[in-house]
Amino acid sequence: MEKKLYRSRNDKKIFGVCGGFAKYCEFDPTLVRLVAALLVVFTGVGLLAYIIAALVMPNEPEM
């Protein structure tokens, strides 16, 4: 089965981008959120990337 990147329906705090990315890469969602927060604080690029991902990534299909 082909892996696809979706926004998480179950593991989300705001839009589910970090939860979906963590599931896709098989990482801990907390670690992904921490890295995203650090990118936002120190570079500002993380916020733009998060907003774009929230707009572009589809929701996880219901099972």
Which consecutive residue ranges, at least 5 long each, have pLDDT under 50?
none
Give helix % range.
55-70%
Percent range for β-strand residues: under 5%
The structural class is: mainly alpha
- How many β strands by DSSP? 0
Q: Please give the radius of gyration in angstroms.
A: 11 Å
Give the topology string: H per helix, E per strand: HHH
What is the end-to-end distance?
16 Å
Largest sheet: none
Mean pLDDT: 88
Q: Outline, from the CA principal axes? A: globular
How large is the count of helical segments? 3
List keywords for this structure.
single chain; mainly alpha; 56% helix; 63 residues
Explain what this protein looks like in three dimensions.
- The chain has 63 residues and is mostly helical.
- It is 56% helix and 0% strand.
- It is built from three helices and no strands.
Helices, strands, pairings?
Elements: H1 17-25, H2 29-42, H3 45-56
Helix pairs in contact: 1-2, 2-3
Short description:
With 63 residues, this protein is mainly α.
